[in-house]
Amino acid sequence: MEFIDYYKILGLDKNASQEDIRKAYRKLARKHHPDLNPNDAEAHRRFQQINEANEVLGDPEKRKKYDQYGKDWQHADQFEKAGQGQGPQQPFGSGGQQFYTEGFEEGFASDFFESLFGHATGSRSRRTGRFRGQDYEAGLQLNLTDAYITHQQTLTVNGKNIRITIPAGIENGQKIRLKGHGAPGVNGGPSGDLYITFSIHNNTAFRRSGDDLHTTLTIDLYTALLGGEVTADTLAGKVKLKIKPETQNDTRIRLKGKGFPVYKKEGEYGDLYLTIQVQLPTNLTSQQKDLFTQLSKM
């Protein structure tokens, strides 16, 4: 029987810890899993080798025998019994006695893999360990006005439609997890998860900063000097507000609770900050210019 280097299959050396073996197995098993490589015979072969290597190296007792006896580790008990009372045993590979190596079938997997998972009539039936399916990553783009309200969207993953609820207040770059919507697990193992990263496109005149919104409000010179009532835009609609007399350019007005929804906190909102921009009059008539001249001399 040909020697199979289980350490090499898992990309490890003989000093690897049991935790190293566990991590290497999980990583490689996911990569070469048949569900992710349905038409790749080489990936299927590698998947079987990886499972076999884990069955041996993942068990401290089997690993100890494998390290000592190599490809004949399964017959370690027979070797030890045969060697009792006969002096020191010869190391394997140097003329040592070999047992039960005839008749083993060479093929898609080694004889040990077959002994673990057996044969089925007419075809091979193998039982592998249960492990979790692979996680999926996806991106979803929303307009800022979409992120302002809680709404539903339908995504298609692996040919299946998934209806999800997107809470108001989702942020640009935020990632959410949909449990169990990734790749299916192996042998009854749990499915992986679906991770969605949101990209928020600002389709408004507002600038978002966390849960607060910022924008400018343009008023005319006369309202700035004398005060008055103006209409301002918010994402929830228009509001009226009073401007105090002698309001200076770049004055900032805060509208409490008129900002962006707080994520997953129903009824809570940030604030809206309006920066006043005073618009100077243009195309003055002669009479208007005279009035300003008089004002400048007072």
Helix-strand blueprint:
Elements: H1 6-9, H2 18-31, H3 41-57, H4 60-69, H5 76-83, H6 111-117, E1 136-143, H7 144-147, E2 151-157, E3 160-166, E4 175-178, E5 194-201, E6 207-209, E7 212-220, H8 221-226, E8 228-234, E9 237-243, E10 252-255, E11 272-279, H9 286-297
Parallel strand pairs: 1-5, 7-11
Antiparallel strand pairs: 2-3, 4-5, 6-7, 8-9, 10-11
Helix pairs in contact: 2-3
Written account of the structure:
- There is one protein chain.
- The protein is of the alpha+beta class.
- The protein has three domains: 6-117, Helix Hairpins (Orthogonal Bundle), CATH 1.10.287.110; 136-201, HSP40/DNAj peptide-binding domain; 207-297, Sandwich (HSP40/DNAj peptide-binding domain), CATH 2.60.260.
- It is 28% helix and 24% strand.
- It has nine helices and eleven strands.
- The protein has helices spanning 6-9, 18-31, 41-57, 60-69, 76-83, 111-117, 144-147, 221-226, 286-297; strands spanning 136-143, 151-157, 160-166, 175-178, 194-201, 207-209, 212-220, 228-234, 237-243, 252-255, 272-279.
- The strands form four sheets. A four-stranded mixed sheet has the order 6-7-11-10.
- Strand 8 and strand 9 form a beta hairpin.
- Helix 2 runs antiparallel to helix 3 (41-57).
- It is rod-shaped and about 120 Å long.
- Mean pLDDT is 82; it is low at 85-109 and 113-127.
- What is the percent of helical residues? 25-40%
Say what the CATH topology of the largest domain is: Helix Hairpins
- N to C succession of SSEs: HHHHHHEHEEEEEEHEEEEH
Structural class: alpha+beta
CATH superfamily caption of the largest domain: DnaJ domain
> Which class of the largest domain in CATH terms?
Mainly Alpha
CATH architecture of the largest domain: Orthogonal Bundle
- Envelope shape: rod-shaped
Strand percentage? 15-25%
Q: What is the arithmetic mean of pLDDT? A: 82
Radius of gyration: 36 Å
